[in-house]
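Re: the 578-residue chain
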Amino acid sequence: MITDAPLRIVIVGHVDHGKSTFVGRLFHDTGSLPEGKFEQIKAACDRRGVPFEWAFLTDGLQAERDQNVTLDTAHICFRTPRRRYVIIDAPGHKEFLKNMVTGAASAEAALLLIDATEGVQEQTRQHANLLQWLGIKQVVVLVNKMDRCLFNADIFRRIATEYPKNLVIPISAKTGDNIASKSANMPWDTGPTALEALDTFKAAEEPANLPLRLPVQDIYRFDNRRIIAGRIESGTLRVGDRILFSPRDKLGTVKTIEGRQSVGITLSEQIFVERGQIISHEYDAPIVADAFGVKLFWLGRQNLEVGRRLKLKLVTQEIECHIESVEKVVDDSALADVTIRTKRPIAFDTYDRVAATGRFVLVDQHQICGGGVIMKGEYHDRSQNIFWTETEVSRADRERRNKHKGTVVWLTGLSASGKSTIATALERELFAMGMHTYVLDGDNIRHGLSANLGFSPEDRTENIRRVGEVARLFCDAGLVVVTAFISPYRDDRQLARSRVDEGDFVEVYVNAPLAVCEQRDKKGLYKQARAGKLTEFTGVSAPYEAPEKPEIVVNTEQHTPAECVEQILRYLKDNGRI
């Protein structure tokens, strides 16, 4: 009986050790060739006046036949009475090693071919190391071209001793010995045929049996519905499921589902969702972190360097990252064990748990410069240890008593742009109107909650994450919380926005030219930064990413603080927040 899912196998080996010949012979001997294909290729060889080779059955490129090398990774399907297979025939010569890595990274098992007349070559050892590096544990070694050494058992055994932990099989792809049937030329061999060895491989777990992973591709509005679109990479999803959006850590309940694998879903709740988030079940979430260990293959024209700034793409997530450290380079090649750090935390899995969310590519100036698989990361069991405690007084109860909605008013801008001045004036006006309000100021927070943080990009991100969580609690308590922080990075502000419900976050861009801010600088911070006495100072030695679509823009060069406060109050009233 043939199983539904095919087993993916990569074939590797030194150039001219017979990979394509082996695949062609395997196709023929298992009856997997299209009807008439063998006769068609043989007749073509006769017309061209060249000897027939089994490799011609699998070669799809004229250039390959002319050069007698496999140019690129080819995916070839065949079947046995037990199951279907996808064979990834990868090139063996060094200049195409990177293509072989691309093929091997998706394989569940491997065949390593060695020419009996040449023995183990440098690239043979590289390929064996590579398979181990990629975590492919099911590897069978095929010692090919036994016909050329007259099926000598001693030659075979010398090679086999180098692979004591693997099943090693003597074969001749050209003559068919030990491919699909036992060889009469090697009575000394008591092991299985290559085909029998293939059928012993264990298939990977079906994607439907793995944890749910649904990367969000986009959000559409249709017929007053917000439809979250994406492709289910693994697991299953049902109406009524409680789902988690990582890395934003928001929960929702599935209301409707349209489609099967590429789906559109709606939620019972109105929560902030954006492209790049990964949907999972609450009890089986992906890892969320900003640093992780990977196995990387480097394709860039320039050398791989620690600290190099790149863009990382993992399913629908795209984020700036850099190489934090290089732990090991494999065989002085383009393969390495490295640690990658992203600009902010992202959601991912280790490759051995969920392959689709455990592999990535790196981009440098719009060109793919590398890719790899994530090997190290720590999963946290949120289902058994941590619960959100609901009190008997709800947010709606508080808002009814307060007579206004809980809201986060997030002021962002350069140092000395006027954020704190506007924030305290806004608080005073709201309080005078009978509103429950509080200001979270950047300097005040760093006296306590963030006293252990500096001003590096990583510390700035963590500072804003903490403030966002505190602001979320104030909002849940029904307060109008006003925050006054430089918060220079868009991603960090977006994270803060995602922690509250849609409509609860009002971003106010306090806009003032850098020259004006420097003139206002009573603390002398800009002068110190210009003199090199302050590092990582926003606007001078560190970037400020202005909001792209803030709810409000106040210009403090042209308007007084009172006029800016009036503009903010008008927005809050018009949008039903107060």
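The mean pLDDT is 85.
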